[in-house]
Amino acid sequence: MKSDHVLDELVRRIPTPGHTIDHYSVQVGKPGEDGIITGDMIHTPLQVRYPELGMFTDYNSQQAGETRRRLFERICETNTLLCGAHFASPSVGRIVRRGSAFDFVPMSD
């Protein structure tokens, strides 16, 4: 099964390679009411500001940075929630543009 795969109308695997070879994140929900569970594609909100910031455990840090930037470009300024699997609480928020970079804006309780 390839990593870009629609399971049903509410669940889709989306390719987010770099940290691992065939890594994928999971997009859940209806368009405009969805969220992306990131898995290992991002480990800290600092990588939202600096998508190119890699980790020594990345399979391919350059690809990981390009993957993050591409995903952030796609979801910034939308209703899509980013659910950071490795973020400390609060780990769910939205991506907003900050110049040529991005910020993670956590959801309020």
Please explain how this structure is put together.
There is one protein chain. The chain has 109 residues and is α+β, with helices and mostly antiparallel strands. It has one domain (5-106): Ribonuclease Z/Hydroxyacylglutathione hydrolase-like (Metallo-beta-lactamase, Chain A, 4-Layer Sandwich). Helices cover 17% and strands 34% of the residues. The protein is built from 2 helices and 7 strands. It has helices at residues 46-49, 61-75, and strands at 5-8, 11-15, 24-30, 33-37, 81-83, 92-98, 101-106. Strands 1-2-3-4-5-6-7 form a 7-stranded mixed beta sheet. The N and C termini lie far apart (37 Å).
Question: Layout of helices and strands, plus pairs?
Answer:
Layout: E1 5-8, E2 11-15, E3 24-30, E4 33-37, H1 46-49, H2 61-75, E5 81-83, E6 92-98, E7 101-106
Parallel strand pairs: 4-5
Antiparallel strand pairs: 1-2, 2-3, 3-4, 5-6, 6-7
Average per-residue pLDDT, rounded, comes to: 91
CATH class: Alpha Beta
Strand content: 25-35%
CATH fold description: Metallo-beta-lactamase, Chain A
From the alpha carbons, calculate the radius of gyration and give it in angstroms.
Answer: 13 Å
Q: For the largest beta sheet, what order do the strands appear in spatially? A: 1-2-3-4-5-6-7
The residue fraction in helices comes out at 10-25%
* N→C terminal distance: 37 Å
- Major sheet details: 7 strands, mixed
Unreliable stretches (pLDDT < 50, length at least 5) are none
Second CATH tier, the architecture: 4-Layer Sandwich
Question: How many beta strands in the DSSP annotation?
Answer: 7
Query: Structural class of the secondary elements?
Result: alpha+beta
- Element string (H = helix, E = strand): EEEEHHEEE
Q: How many individual domains?
A: 1
Please, how many helices? 2
* Overall shape: globular
CATH superfamily: Ribonuclease Z/Hydroxyacylglutathione hydrolase-like
